[in-house]
Write a structure and sequence with these properties.
Elements (H helix, E strand, L loop, with lengths): L2 E7 L7 H9 L4 E6 L8 H9 L5 E4 L9 H13 L3 E4 L4 E2 L3 H34 L12 H12 L4 H8 L3 H10 L3
Parallel strand pairs: 1-2, 1-3, 3-4
Antiparallel strand pairs: 4-5
Helix pairs in contact: 5-6
Pfam families: Resolvase
Family: Belongs to the site-specific recombinase resolvase family.
Protein name: Recombinase family protein
């Protein structure tokens, strides 16, 4: 069993020293690093760490937020590790999925995360239904409004193509075609 560390800072200006010291003190034999935002999906250090891990190893991070882009991503990553027989430890939050208590705490996080996603989904649906009942529709406002459509028709009557009229009005030709076709106002 090997303790494999993963450290990440969001910008090149930030220093990894605190995390690297904590990972060394935790007995990590190998440490992978990234200097990238946690929101980025393409973190080469994390990818290399995940590829390096073997059954029985433990991935160690200084904090939970160093590993996951979001709670759902964190849960997905730790679940994938678990399926491979790899444990996970977060030093700051003192979570260790190699112990029954650590697995319990992590699964409580997962349950709370799922509960939060369900609540957000429920509130979104209720908000959309209420807006629809008031006659409102979602999405972006049309780029081609009444005035632009009127001017486009004038340009086209004078002999311009739809493409040329769209360029003069600074709208996309596809949007203008759609507005003309729909007779939008």
């Amino acid at each position: 069993m090997a303790a494999v560390g993963y450290a990440r800072v969001s910008t090149a200006d930030q220093d990894l020293a605190l995390q690297l010291d904590a990972l060394a003190a935790a007995g990590c034999t190998k440490v992978f690093e990234d200097r990238a935002s946690g929101a980025r999906a393409d973190r080469p250090g994390l990818r290399a760490a995940l590829d390096y891990l073997r059954d029985g190893d433990v991935l160690v991070t200084w904090k939970l937020d160093r590993l996951g882009r979001s709670l759902p991503h964190l849960i997905e990553t730790v679940a994938a590790l678990e399926r491979r027989g790899v444990g996970f430890r977060s030093l700051t939050e003192v979570i260790d999925t190699t112990t029954p208590g650590g697995r319990l705490v992590f699964h409580l996080f997962a349950a709370l995360g799922q509960f939060e996603r369900d609540l957000i989904r429920e509130r979104t649906r209720a908000g959309l239904a209420a807006a629809a009942a008031r006659g409102q529709t979602g999405g972006r406002r049309p780029v081609v409004n009444e005035e632009k459509l009127r001017r486009a028709r004038e340009h086209i009557t004078r002999g311009l193509t739809v493409r040329e009229a769209a360029a003069r009005l600074k709208v996309g030709k596809t949007a203008l075609y759609e507005a003309l076709k729909a007779g939008l106002a």
